[in-house]
Request: fold
Amino acid sequence: LASSGVPSEERQYKAYAEVARRILPESVIIRTLDLGGDKLPASVKMPDESNPFLGWRAIRLCLARPEIFKTQLRAILRASAHNPKLRIMYPMISSSREVDQADGLLQECKAELAAAGVAFNPNVEVGVMIEIPSAALTADLIAPKVKFFSIGTNDLVQYTLAVDRVNERVAHLYEPTHPAVLKLIRCTVEASHRHGIWTGVCGEMAGNPVLTPLLLGLGVDELSASPGAIPLVKDVIRHIRYSEALDLADTASGLASGEEILDQCRALVRRAAPEILELAE
Reply:
């Protein structure tokens, strides 16, 4: 975002390779270019849009500007030679067709590197972010094409409820526990498991220990949180039984409002680990 131009393939490769080597033997996921919306670099000419969050951003921008996208994909592929658990993730996917288009460019990059004799992992895993309701509702069509889902809850809530969370007039309507949001999360998780892949959650929900039992009860396999949030999230998991998380998710499915569901989440954490609730709030 601070660069005066689009970073070169070599510059990106060095950055990705350093992360890939340092994180060994653990895995690392590199999300492809997610510009647009509230992330606007001076180096990329973006059109004036009345609503940039619904416009030319993320995978849409990448598919429209393949020269930028392929530069990053080649850099990521080269970095994959340093860590067999390096994965690629496409953001803001709205349909399986976009996955096909992105994968087509990825295959081109693999062919170019192979022809040049450049090392990379030919079996690098690819996943997608589920942050648009259309992707959650068609998760069964997307799942056979990828190895994992990552639910981006910040945008999923925003797009599901038609709420701009930075708009003070409607920010109170931004409700992660809204029944519609939870149905989309469950829909995504169940589709992934039917097809033998895993689902993670990123965004504010994943780092909120009050919501940890609910996400576990909905079947989520992995949580991606900021370093500061991880100790509290892990503590909640240690203090509850999985059966309690399942019961919470079942109870939530029968409630009519996000506020009621949030109250149930707080009640469970208060019973299991009251000190965590105090720290979280």
Summary: Residues 96-115 form the longest helix (20 residues).
